[in-house]
Design a protein that fits this description.
The complex is a heterodimer of chains A (about 725) and B (about 280). Chain A is mainly beta. Chain A has five helices and 40 strands. Chain A folds into two domains: about 100 residues, Carboxypeptidase-like, regulatory domain (Immunoglobulin-like); about 600 residues, Maltoporin, Chain A. About 0% of the residues of chain A have low confidence. The chains are: A mainly beta (about 725), B mainly beta (about 280).
């Protein structure tokens, strides 16, 4: 209660203080057409201030102290521009105009994962990949997973995301990657599992993927990487978005595998409305996915509803309240009936269906006391109900994850940006399978980004976390980080970072006791938190504004890595710590685009690829870690002319070296080719495509084939 | 100018075609298994009441390194019939053993729960193997099974005295009864009557003050010529067991008899001596 009072007092003080300052206005237009550009982000560099343009391309930033600033404008699909030496006076309104040039590649978008503040990607000391809303829309995805699997270094095994081989496969319990929704953790409090259906893909503005440990700022679970899903803000002029998409699964490649005559398909419908009314903004959306699946137990009905409300106070403070609800009723395909019936399950598993609910809510209050100091308060709730997918008569109760955080951003001198805060998290869950448990985590953190010279930035941060399991073990964890970003001339950037990460074991990993398919899962209450040290060194070079190459070498050292241990003598599964493990390798990515005319018609083509080569080892037993490929490669090529666009993707993962349950089953590398076509007509976009064009049969974990060739179609409109 | 621009379009088309060409010339990933073993199982007597299910398993190597290195039928075979026909799809290759694995409703499954294992009379009574190839993609086998083998109607009990604390790298410790004293690694699996892996410092029967464990091993009545205590280190395979103690006087156990007082003294130093 005292904390809430303090927040209110601080907020009013800030509101009064800020009203006494000045203004900066301007507009943004398309350089080629001269048309105003809406939804352009405009940031005042070296401050906590920014704005976005309305449908007339205008923006306004008030209450800046008198001084000299640099202003940057960025928008998806355009090259960003920075205007320096802008003088803001107390007796005049400063007016600026940006002229942005269209671009197929977005080289350095604004990200927040690197420092918990908005900054340009090329200024970050760590490796981050970004997918923007335009790319998401072009892919016509059914869920967030389909978007992420095209990021270099990212690979999925089942529903578990691997960033540079971080997680492997742990039967859905515990991810070594932290999933954030607008910077707020959204894992299930009992299992640590992610709900990739938590919101419709249409609601997403941008997805950032941090590769390597990120616990210094983001806390537990940021062991092998962080994924931040950023939702759209209310539109300044009001926008209604509707989309329909459908897919038809082809017959299996081998006739022997055909298991049904009924067609297998899915449809997805989404609608959203977004509008800013003066100081108040609202974004509402609802979606529904209905699928028969491509295999037995593949049927699912998924329903989403989200609401985002924000209000900007006169002094510059703002409050955001967000809620996302999803309900998924689906079957659980645990393993195939046999290698010659890979789309069927054993008759005894046909009842493996469950309903999963998840509610994510957060409230954020941003209070900018000045252009140099801002506070942010955050309260969050994740309520998840894991369904009873084991076909056993046991009651499941909802799990609750509650979080509180206060974060300060302070720019004491132009060369220093200090971010500090305190995070509290409480997770609780109970079922008959693992009893009733609570865990608490409290962690203060501090990071300074120091611009030593105009082209050199040094980042140093430290976090301390205390994890306490009610009536059980307590752990103290320190997560330091050091980073360097060095611009070598105007075309090259060198970056290096060393950071620590940790993840406290989830309730399910410690306490689950269950019999599944002749295996007994045995509890391990003494399971320790897993920790990592991630070293990353990278070099990015811009050969031109349309061609960049990025190369990284990385070494992730793991301590007490938590893996599912299979006791093959006794038929038991238990989560255990592996004393030492290591994943190291290199990553190469590049993007090139080109504009030209062909038979008097304008064309834009682009090619992007990513190659990740990894060596992973369990240093305790000197053997490969399970469920991790050694090589990942993906390439995306696109050709666009006017309203038409054609894209082709190829995704490759080398054969997984080692699996746990059925090493005797044949394993193959992954080869997927997807093609897409898009046509725009005013506000309407038509999409069609074929996923897994060449009917490749791939099982990332044993006995679980991915989808066969799938024909997709979509219609999207915005008004 | 036209030539330069054409080059980009050509390059794009070439990339697409090359991708398609490469894909068309490799396989389509996982494919159906081409071989098949068909088995006729002929049962004698009736299934024990604590039968959860029975699975056909085929092992490329015998003894297998681990129980998951065997192919097995996806679901339990019927347990209420005199004769059952079943098939299992397999890759081409040689297989050294076929077995019928029994799962109990009340105990952990282990490799003493082999209900049927056809032996080769022409090959020192080693398990009967077979080969599948393009020329001979199918193989048939008859498997004779006596349900009574799993009816463990008697028991042996006693104390196991440990010579010191359990090593840090312990994965499992077990007590096992044999009809004959094994003379080779394979015999440790073939002649196994019963085994219990619940021996250990975490088990209720363990007394930490005296380092003793009270065991009770269910067995089928008849002759028991050898009882052994095994220890397995972490990451061990099925045949990486170390004998740390034994009882090798013959015992004749009657139906429903509970033979008590069969104490076994173990010695941890035997683990190290084996490697010397």
């Amino acid at each position: 209660m005292a904390l809430i009072k303090c927040v209110i007092i601080l907020f009013f003080i800030s509101a009064l203080q800020i009203q006494a300052q000045t203004a900066l206005t301007g507009s943004v237009i398309d350089k080629k057409t001269g048309q105003p550009l809406r939804a352009v982000n405009v940031m005042v560099l070296g401050t906590t201030r920014g704005s976005s343009t309305d449908k007339s391309g205008r923006f306004s930033i008030s209450n800046l102290p008198v001084g000299q600033y640099a202003l940057r404008a960025s928008r998806i699909g355009y090259k960003q521009e920075t205007i320096e030496n802008i003088i803001v006076r107390s007796d005049a309104v400063t007016v600026i105009q940006f002229k942005l040039t269209e671009s197929a590649l977005e080289a350095d978008p604004i990200v927040i994962l690197a420092g918990k503040i908005a900054q340009r990607l090329d200024k970050a000391p760590v490796h981050i990949s970004v997918i923007n809303s335009l790319e998401i829309a072009r892919r016509n995805p059914a869920d967030i997973k389909q978007i992420l699997q095209t990021v270099p270094g990212v690979h999925f095994v089942g529903d578990q995301i691997n960033i540079r081989g971080s997680t492997g496969f742990t039967f859905g319990a515990g991810n070594k990657v932290l999933l954030l929704l607008d910077g707020v953790p959204v894992y299930a409090a009992d299992t640590g599992a992610f709900n990739w259906d938590m919101l419709p893909p249409e609601d997403i503005e941008q997805i950032e993927v941090l590769k390597g440990a990120g616990s210094t700022l983001w806390g537990s679970s940021a062991l092998g990487g962080v994924v931040n899903v950023i939702t759209r803000d209310p539109d300044p002029d009001g926008i209604l978005r509707c989309s329909w998409s459908g897919g038809y699964y082809d017959k299996p490649y081998y006739k022997d595998w055909q298991w049904t005559d009924s067609p297998r398909h899915y449809t997805r419908e989404d609608i959203s409305y977004s509008r800013r009314f003066s100081r108040f903004g609202v974004q509402l959306s609802a979606g529904r996915l209905n699928t028969t699946g491509y295999s037995q137990l593949g049927e699912a009905l998924k329903i989403n509803a989200t609401a985002k409300l924000n209000y900007r106070f006169p002094g510059g403070a703002s409050i955001i309240i967000y809620g996302a609800f999803s309900r998924v009723h689906r079957g659980y395909f645990v393993q195939w009936k046999g290698p010659n019936d890979p789309y069927e399950v054993d008759e005894s598993n046909l009842a493996n269906r469950a309903t999963v609910h998840q509610l994510n809510m957060y409230a954020k209050l941003n209070v900018p006391f000045s252009a140099k100091f801002a506070l942010q308060f955050r309260a969050s709730l994740v309520r998840s109900l894991m369904g009873n997918q084991f076909g056993q008569g046991v009651q499941f109760d909802p799990a609750y994850g509650q979080g509180l955080e206060i974060q300060a951003t302070w720019i004491p001198r132009p060369a220093h940006t200090i971010t500090g805060g305190l995070q509290f998290q409480m997770d609780r869950g109970s079922t008959e399978f693992f009893g009733s448990h609570r865990g608490y985590l409290i962690g203060p953190y501090l990071q300074d980004e120091w611009e030593i010279r105009k082209n050199i930035r040094l980042t140093a941060g430290l976090r301390y976390d205390r994890y306490q399991l009610e009536g059980g073990l307590a752990e103290d964890l320190f997560s330091p980080r050091l980073g360097l970003n060095w611009e070598l001339g105007t075309r090259s950037i060198f970056r290096a970072s060393a950071g620590s990460g940790f993840r406290a074991a989830t309730i399910i990993e410690r306490f689950l006791e269950l019999s599944v398919m002749n295996f007994n899962i045995v509890a391990n209450p003494e399971l320790r938190a897993e920790r990592s040290w991630a070293f990353d060194m990278g070099f990015k070079h811009y050969f031109s504004s349309n061609w960049h190459v990025d190369v990284s070498v990385f070494d992730n050292e793991y301590f007490d890595l938590i893996e599912a241990h299979l006791n093959l003598i006794r038929g038991q599964i238990q989560f255990r710590n592996i004393d030492r493990a290591r994943i190291r390798g290199m990553e190469l990515s590049s993007g090139i685009s080109r504009d030209y005319r062909f038979f008097s018609r304008p064309f834009m083509s682009s090619l992007e690829f990513g190659l990740t080569i990894m060596d992973h080892e369990d240093l305790q037993w000197n053997e490969p870690l399970t469920y991790r490929p050694n090589k990942l490669f993906n390439v995306n090529t696109a050709l666009e002319s006017g309203a038409f666009r054609f894209e082709a993707d190829y995704r490759y993962a080398s054969k997984i070296d080692k699996v746990k349950v059925y090493p005797i089953n044949r394993r193959v590398p992954m080869h997927f080719v997807d093609i897409r076509f898009q046509a725009r007509w005013n506000s309407v976009t038509f999409l069609c495509g074929i996923n897994n064009l060449l009917q490749y049969n791939y099982a990332p974990m044993e006995s679980n084939l991915q989808a066969m060739r799938t024909y997709t179609i979509g219609l999207k409109g915005s008004w | 100018m036209l030539k330069k621009n054409s080059l980009y379009v050509l390059l794009f088309v070439l990339i697409c075609i090359t991708g398609l060409y490469i894909q068309c010339n490799i396989d389509h990933g996982i494919s159906p298994l081409p071989g098949e073993l068909s088995v006729r199982i002929i049962f004698r007597n009736e299934a024990p009441a604590n039968t959860q299910g029975i699975y056909l398993t085929v092992s490329p190597e015998f003894p297998p390194h681990a129980i998951n290195e065997m192919f097995h039928s996806p679901n339990s075979l019927p347990i209420d019939k005199d004769t059952v026909w079943t098939e299992i799809a397999l890759p081409f290759g040689s297989y050294e053993a076929v077995a019928l694995w029994w799962y109990s409703t009340d105990t952990e499954s282990n490799f003493a729960d082999v209900l049927g294992l056809p032996l080769d009379l022409n090959n020192n009574l080693l398990p009967l193997g077979f080969t599948l190839s393009g020329e001979k993609p199918q193989y048939h086998m008859d498997l004779y099974v006596n349900w009574d083998r799993m009816k463990r109607d008697a028991s042996i009990s006693g104390k196991i005295q440990f010579s010191g604390p359990f090593p840090d790298n312990s994965m499992a410790t077990a007590v096992a009864a044999y009809q004959y004293k094994p003379s080779s690694d394979i015999h440790y699996l073939l002649w196994l009557k019963s085994i219990d892996f619940s021996v250990g410092p975490q088990s209720p029967g363990f007394d930490a003050s005296t380092l003793t464990y009270d065991y009770k091993l269910p067995v089928r009545h008849g002759l028991v010529n050898y009882i052994a205590v095994f220890w397995l280190p972490q990451n061990a395979g099925l045949t990486d067991f170390h004998v740390i103690g034994s009882y090798d006087l013959p015992l004749s156990i009657n139906t429903n008899e509970e033979r008590a007082g069969i104490d076994i003294i173990t010695d941890w130093s035997l683990i190290n001596n084996e490697g010397e």
